[in-house]
Amino acid sequence: MLMLINGTYLAWSQDLLLGLGWAPAAQTEPQRLVQQIKPEALRLLSPQELAQAEPSSQAASKPNE
After folding, report:
1. Rounded distance, CA 11 to CA 7, Å?
2. What is the distance of C-alpha 24 from the center of its chain?
3. pLDDT at residue number 59
4. N or C end: fewer C-beta atoms under 10 angstroms in the chain?
5. C-alpha separations of 39 from 19, 32, 42 in Å
6. How far apart are CA 63 and CA 65, in angstroms?
7. Residue from 16, 34, 36 nearest 24 by CA
8. What is the pLDDT of residues 8-65, one digit of tens each?
9. Contact 12, 23 (CB under 8 A)
């Protein structure tokens, strides 16, 4: 019984039951795209770039004494 339920869930989640009218609801969030502020400014750092950037960010985050 458990294998039948798991198989049915797998078929449903992979849209294999779409022809029968059974499919998960499509989840989209277009409002999040509108709320983004300068997404082109996002830059992924390699581990080496991150290591170079960390000391400067730590110095900038220290409070003035």
Report:
1. 6
2. 19
3. 54
4. C
5. 38, 11, 6
6. 6
7. 16
8. 999 998 989 888 888 888 778 888 888 888 888 888 999 998 888 877 655 555 555 4
9. yes
Q: What is 40-65 written as a DSSP string?
A: GG--PPPHHHHHHHHHHHHHHHSPP-
Q: What is the pLDDT of residue 58?
A: 57
Residues 9, 37: Cα–Cα separation, whole Å: 38
Alpha carbon distance 14, 3 (integer Å):
16
Q: 59, 53 in Cβ contact below 8 A? A: no
Tokens of 29: 């969030």
Tokens at 44, concatenated: 């992924």
